[in-house]
Amino acid sequence: MSRIVLPNEFDYDENQRIKYELKNKYPFLVCHSVGKSVCGRDITAYSLGNYKNIVLFAGGFHAQEWLTSLVLLRFLEKVCESLKTKQKLSGVDITSAFMTKGITIVPCVNPDGVEIALHGAESAGEFSGFISDISRGDLSEWNANARGVDINHNFDAGWQILREMESKSGIFGPSPRRYGGHAPHSEPETEALVRFCERNRVDHTFAIHSQGEEIYWEYGENTPEESLTMANIFSVCSGYELVQNNGLASHGGFKDWFIDYFGRCAFTIEIGKGKNPLPVNELDEIYEKIEEMLVVGAII
Questions:
Q1: Separation CA 215–CA 270 (nearest Å)
Q2: pLDDT at position 132
Q3: DSSP code per residue over 242-261
Q4: How confident is the model at residue 263 (pLDDT cuts 50, 70, 90)?
């Protein structure tokens, strides 16, 4: 098939270009917005299949992890092409599967953060001076949104415990990374995902991060019994290792909130290996290694 051309850097302009190309190529693809970022950028989502039984895939939580967005867009295009041609994807009849299952993909939860990481503080408009101050002019490790909040520390799952852990680590306020905000769900990007999950029947979720080739699958006493079974299946499909929460990754994440709030399965997938941002020339290799996992995750 002729692929949508994916960029060397996934900024907001490329996000918009790809959205329109995908919609033109696959008219059955539903493109919508789940909310807006601090700076007013759309948080774009794509939906396919049975909307009454959704599996949610979300990426781009952290600014330096924009390759996760490209991985999800590659997956989306492959699913669309499978539906268009009625050919199997990783041995799965997607057309039949999507009679009862559906997917929603949010490639980039934190579009402002990605813009800041790629194009500097000026891309955040009125927040540019604030960002320059708290980053001290060094954006090489910027992962937060435009208000200096780490989206994956901002969900209401052990948030107060995490806030105390952040303080012990010397993180007391807005920061390029690892500050969970002044309250859980304080950020519009966080609220957008929460609202979507509350308003739709989401069976299980995948939060795509980088890096480590790891799968996180549990959170507290509400972790469903089937979570470990599913995680083991995903590990076999991808070769990724199962790991448990630890340190500042122990609370406040989207996966953690989803499990704690709904009592349903959720997984954090850490793609690739190396230093963020992972190089775009590794996209194909990373995607090929996890395609089967993503497909199985969409229909299981």
A1: 6
A2: 97
A3: EE---GGGSSS-HHHHHHHH
A4: very high
